[in-house]
Amino acid sequence: MIEDMLRTPSAVRDAEKYTAHNYHPLPVVISSAEGAWLTDVDGKRYLDCLAGYSALNFGHRHPQLIAAAHAQLDRLTLTSRAFIHDQFADFCRELAELCGKDLVLPMNTGAEAVETGIKVARKWGYQVKGVPAGQANIVVAEGNFHGRTTTIVSFSTDEDARADFGPYTPGFTVVPYGDLDALTAAIDENTVAVLLEPIQGEQGVVVPPEGYLPGVRQVCTDRDVLFIADEIQSGLGRTGKTFACDHEGVVPDMYLLGKALGGGIIPVSAVAANADVLGVLKPGQHGSTFGGNPLACAVAIEVVRLLATGEFQRRSAELGERLRTGLEGLVGKGLVGVRVRGLWAGLDIDPALMSGREACERLAARGVLAKDTHGSTIRLAPPLVITEEEIDLAVATLAEVLAG
Ligand SMILES: Cc1ncc(COP(=O)(O)O)c(C=O)c1O
Prior knowledge:
The chain is α/β, with parallel strands linked by helices. The chain has 15 helices and 15 strands. A hairpin with a 4-residue loop joins β14 (about 370) and β15 (about 375-380). α4 (about 65-75) runs antiparallel to α12 (about 295-310). The structure holds pyridoxal-5'-phosphate (PLP). Pyridoxal-5'-phosphate (PLP) binds near residues 146, 202 and 232. Pyridoxal-5'-phosphate binds near residues 111, 146, 201 and 233.
């Protein structure tokens, strides 16, 4: 009877009826949110432990970001890059400063930033490194996730992501993640870039062995190859530092950024690199109608300013230790593995107990939203505004679910 009065079941049915089934969402229908909390159409509240795959690092509707968006909506929303608008220079300068790079190229989605990085690296290879026409190759890692375009899925090692989308774009060499010898051996005279996630998020928050990223940096320098760090999910405070590369003092040649850069309000992505790299692009060679639009820039400027205070990186580092302690206490009690960097965790559930999907369904029933990645692995990525008590609540709820 009560079931009949709920709005969720019919909203789930309607959503399934009118959309392509390229996602398998949890059956919750959200209608509002604030900070780390979501409310569904029936008034049930959930603690958000996914944060839009890290697009909501600053929480839902952060007041400073919402205010910037409102103010910009009332003035100017789009010009295209045919003209310059008054938010553009500030955004590019402040983001370039945050990254320690000369230049920024704004786009919209993460996949577009990755595509941009690939194009820039190839052009750099032909024009600066002297690679023969059409011969450039890029070394990538097994288990990568860089987005969904046809070129990007061409070098995915996940058959769900790749199968039946060929013919595939050539020019990529896949090596095992975390294996410096294999990566070094794969580089030849036509290699223009190594493209890596410093931590593989979709793969289950996989942290490479210590020394790997500095080793990659060194071999790229030695062999005149660009090191492209895809920090779209790992960057902008998620791991307790501005960039995941910072944990090992590594500075890539190119940062790929997205997700949190748009403050959970609007898609904003960017490539940041020095002028000797990004400077290879000339008018007409790359672009996007919406990339760097005034609304996006107004929000992203505030995102960069929030990060420039260091407060969110500190929160993520400190609260991440609390999350780590809580989760490590569950190893042997339903978890068989835990990887934590800042407020980012990959949890391997004992497959004999339940799948990651089942665990997420049970967590949702108890008011905590998280998402499985592969098989029995769950990723937790709460908004960085989460409190100590809320972390304890998430861990206690997980303990209940694992205890059956
Ligand atoms: C590391 C990484 N790169 C790229 C992307 C693609 O971003 P988008 O979904 O905005 O295209 C993602 C998305 O999950 C990601 O995690």
